[in-house]
């Protein structure tokens, strides 16, 4: 049985600049076809616009407020919002609120730096 607690999972920076804590994936569990991580964006921060050729993602906002761009559509996002990001679609997330934006990220197949294509300069 694989159980990971968010309080003890180490953080790392993804290729798009997000700080994530990978809760479950092939690197640390018996899970093979997806991953679950918590991402955090500080106040005023954003990810670099990017896409994943293979992975589709689901973002679920747990703390804070933000603005989400997928391709040419931009929408405000809040606690409780689940966001579908199909594979191959450019996306970017901004923290527009007064606290750290926190979200759960589900990727299938699992997140890999090599499956991230940056589409804007740092």
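-> sequence recovered:
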């Amino acid at each position: 049985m694989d159980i990971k607690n968010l309080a003890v999972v180490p953080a790392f920076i993804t290729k798009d600049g997000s700080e994530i804590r990978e809760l479950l994936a092939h690197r640390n569990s018996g899970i093979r076809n997806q991953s679950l991580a918590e991402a955090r964006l500080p106040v005023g921060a954003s990810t670099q616009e990017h896409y994943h050729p293979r992975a589709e993602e689901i973002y679920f906002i747990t703390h804070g407020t933000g603005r989400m761009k997928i391709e040419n559509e931009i929408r405000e996002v809040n606690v409780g919002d689940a966001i579908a990001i199909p594979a191959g679609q450019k996306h970017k997330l901004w923290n527009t609120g007064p606290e750290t934006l926190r979200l759960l990220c589900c990727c299938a197949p699992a997140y890999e730096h090599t499956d991230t294509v940056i589409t804007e300069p740092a």
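The two ends are 40 Å apart (CA to CA).
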